[in-house]
Design brief:
- The complex is a heterodimer of chains A (about 110) and B (about 120).
- In chain A, the strands form two sheets. In chain A, strands 2, 4, 5, 6, 9, 10 and 11 form a seven-stranded mixed beta sheet that branches. Chain A has a four-stranded antiparallel beta sheet with strand order 1-3-8-7, with no helix packed on it.
- In chain A, β7 and β8 form a beta hairpin.
- The mean pLDDT of chain A is about 95.
- Chain A contains no helices and eleven strands.
- Chain A is about 0% helix and about 50% strand.
- Chain B has about 120 residues and is an all-beta fold.
- Chain B contains no helices and eleven strands.
- In chain B, the strands form two sheets. In chain B, strands 2, 4, 5, 6, 9, 10 and 11 form a seven-stranded mixed beta sheet that branches. Chain B has a four-stranded antiparallel beta sheet with strand order 1-3-8-7, with no helix packed on it.
- The N and C termini of chain B lie far apart (about 40 Å).
- The relative contact order of chain B is 0.31.
- Classes of the chains: A mainly beta (about 110), B mainly beta (about 120).
């Protein structure tokens, strides 16, 4: 089973700042990694698939990069609605999710 | 656009069976997608439960496989989850989601979009 770790666990930033979230896989997943955003009381929303492709309707301030075992989700300039929990997800034999990074307001 | 809606009892007794249905609207369950169940215990992360294709083919999380059954009803455009022998550890928000899944080798493309709103199932006597 491939294990995903995310860092930091919590990221405290102000609106307008740049957010950089990390996801590391215990072994290579090539470029097949997805990112989701989840706000309190809501379902997860797909942001990025295949490491760097934005899902339909996702603003350009969200970008993904990486391959192999190290991946990054970048939010170029935080909007008030971006404060949420972010999960990465991969599939080797079955889908697994990282533990999440909470982006909160500083 | 495709929308998913979970339904089912919000309270299940320990040792009983959890049963949920996910209704798909705005698209066909017979499309080239896999249909998944994912759960999230209160305050915790996401756990994939399993998936089904319209043909009836299924894949399950090995940690839950002995207790899970996922089925599809193409006539009603919906799919269902049954989880048996539940305990308090099965208390969670249960989501259904459309899965995109390609590949069969070492590397597999997979993501979930969209998701249902989720339904809280509590296991308690």
């Amino acid at each position: 089973e491939i294990v995903l770790t995310q860092s930091p666990a919590t990221l405290s930033l102000s609106p307008g700042e740049r957010a950089t979230l990390s996801c590391r896989a215990s072994q290579s997943v090539s470029s097949y990694l997805a990112w989701y955003q989840q706000k309190p009381g809501q379902a997860p929303r797909l942001l990025i698939y295949d490491a760097s492709n934005r899902a339909t309707g996702i603003p350009a301030r969200f970008s993904g990069s990486g391959s192999g075992t190290d991946f990054t989700l970048t939010i170029s300039s935080l909007e008030p609605e971006d404060f949420a929990v972010y999960y990465c997800q991969q599939r080797s034999n079955w889908p697994t999710f990282g533990p999440g990074t909470k982006v909160d307001i500083k | 656009q495709v929308q998913l809606q979970e339904s089912g009892p919000g309270l299940v007794k320990p040792s009983g069976t959890l049963s949920l249905t996910c209704a798909v609207s705005g698209g066909s369950i017979s499309s080239s997608n896999w249909w998944s169940w994912v759960r999230q215990p209160p305050g915790k992360g996401l756990e994939w439960i399993g998936e089904i294709y319209h043909s009836g083919s299924t894949n399950y999380n090995p940690s839950l496989k002995s207790r899970v059954t996922i089925s599809v009803d193409k006539s009603k455009n919906q799919f269902s989850l049954k989880l048996s022998s539940v305990t308090a550890a099965d208390t969670a928000v249960y989501y259904c989601a459309r899965g995109y899944y390609y590949g069969s080798g070492s590397y597999r493309r997979n993501w979930f979009d969209p998701w249902g709103q989720g339904t809280l199932v509590t296991v308690s006597s």
